[in-house]
From TrEMBL:
<keyword id="KW-0732">Signal</keyword>
<dbReference type="Pfam" id="PF03843">
    <property type="entry name" value="Slp"/>
</dbReference>
<feature type="signal peptide">
    <location>
        <begin position="1"/>
        <end position="24"/>
    </location>
</feature>
<protein>
    <recommendedName>
        <fullName>Outer membrane lipoprotein</fullName>
    </recommendedName>
</protein>
<dbReference type="GO" id="GO:0019867">
    <property type="term" value="C:outer membrane"/>
</dbReference>
<dbReference type="InterPro" id="IPR004658">
    <property type="entry name" value="OMP_Slp"/>
</dbReference>
Amino acid sequence: MRTAARALLCLPALLVLLTLAACAPAPIYKAAPQAVVATPQQVAQSPERYAGGDVIWGGRIVQVMNFTDHSEVELLSYPLDASQRPKANDSGSGRFIAVLPGYAEPLDYPAGALMTVSGKLNGSRAGKVGQADYVFPLVSAAQSHVWTAEEMNKGRNNVRFGLGVGVGIH
């Protein structure tokens, strides 16, 4: 009888956990079986080792540069959550350049926005971050997504547990 009572007491907690898990959006890109699990910073140290590898990386847009036949979006990389959204409150893990076909309207890729890219590693390029020399891994983007504030908050748990008295201002 005690086991049945325990099971009944645990049921509400289990239902809450299942409900919260169901709210999280699914990943937007399917990971390749042979996907590179290294960070842009690790790839920059030995780009030849990862050449041609599939990646799904994300980060904060630093700048957009348009050329005659393609565009380049420089990003400060962040780890991705289970829905492939950049976790911008984490520390950055290097920079990379997403190479997009055609023209990328800078207003659609604003500096500071969060973005996820799926594509293949295609070498690297030496450049500068401020006055410092830097090696940027190049990702030939097959797909890219700039996240809206609403998408970034979707599926986030707004329930807080704690003891004491608190005042929330939104």
